[in-house]
Design goal:
7 strands, 35% helix, seven-stranded mixed beta sheet, binds S-adenosylmethionine, 218 residues, Rossmann fold, alpha/beta
Length: 218
């Protein structure tokens, strides 16, 4: 039987006091970290799969087992959808969620590197989903949250409509504050739907937790 999802426990009482400083620094930073070879290979696979594709391109970042990637591909039959997750344990399980749809790909890759490669190759997104990223709720772990890393700059550069969901309201509020710092308009709302789009979303809702959503036109 599935364990109920634990609710978020944090030592933060509001927006992190260092958010402004960290986000401002990250927006000016250039990552010098060497790219992982497995992500370079995954990127080449994505580029080969895309071929001469010039149409809508959607990224499902941190897609886990890729259930959301299939749902997005179904909802956007005229788009190509790429799901990325760093965990082989999760992407290997995609076979249980796979569909016969031809317009999506689930790849194991490190998102930081994959985003950098997309930017370096002048790719632009029409939509970008980031559904239930690891929240890292301890105050000391601020710099592990996506909006407080150098990936934020790449996310902004890739453009499209960004959709982020979390069961931790503060994560969404801080993401929104980070976008404000970058002068990007965004909206926050409680997210409800009849059907969960991902396994984590399903688990949270079954445990009585709510989802918060941020959207922004980048
Ligand atoms: C809480 S799970 C959510 C998975 C899925 N989106 C869902 O809602 O079911 C967070 C996912 O982020 C992935 N992740 C964390 N850091 C990552 C990174 N640097 N690159 C790619 N995936 C990452 C983890 O492997 C994990 O599958």
């Amino acid at each position: 039987m599935q364990q109920p999802a634990r609710s978020i426990s944090t030592n933060q009482t509001g927006i992190h006091q260092n958010l402004q400083k960290v986000v401002t620094r990250q927006l000016l930073s250039v990552s010098q970290r060497p790219l992982s070879s497995h992500t370079q290979q995954a990127f080449e696979e994505a580029i080969n799969w895309l071929g001469k594709w010039q149409g809508e391109l959607i990224l499902d970042s941190c897609c886990g087992v890729g259930e959301s990637t299939v749902n997005i591909a179904q909802a956007h039959p005229n788009a190509r959808v790429i799901g990325i997750d760093k965990s082989a344990l999760r992407t290997d399980k995609h076979t249980s969620y796979a569909s016969a749809l031809q317009n999506y790909l689930v790849l194991r890759a490190d998102l930081n590197d994959f985003l950098r490669l997309l930017v370096a190759n002048d790719k632009k997104l029409t939509k970008h989903y980031l559904l239930y990223p690891n929240p890292y709720p301890k105050s000391a772990h601020l710099q592990r949250r996506w909006y407080a890393t150098s990936a934020l700059k790449d996310i902004l550069e890739l453009g499209g409509i960004l959709e982020v969901r979390s069961n931790w309201q503060l994560y969404i509020q801080e993401f929104s504050a980070a976008l404000d710092i970058a002068h990007v308009k965004n909206q926050i709302a409680l997210f409800e739907s009849d059907k969960a789009m991902t396994p984590f979303e399903r688990k949270y809702w079954q445990s009585g937790q709510s989802s918060w959503q941020l959207t922004a036109h980048l």
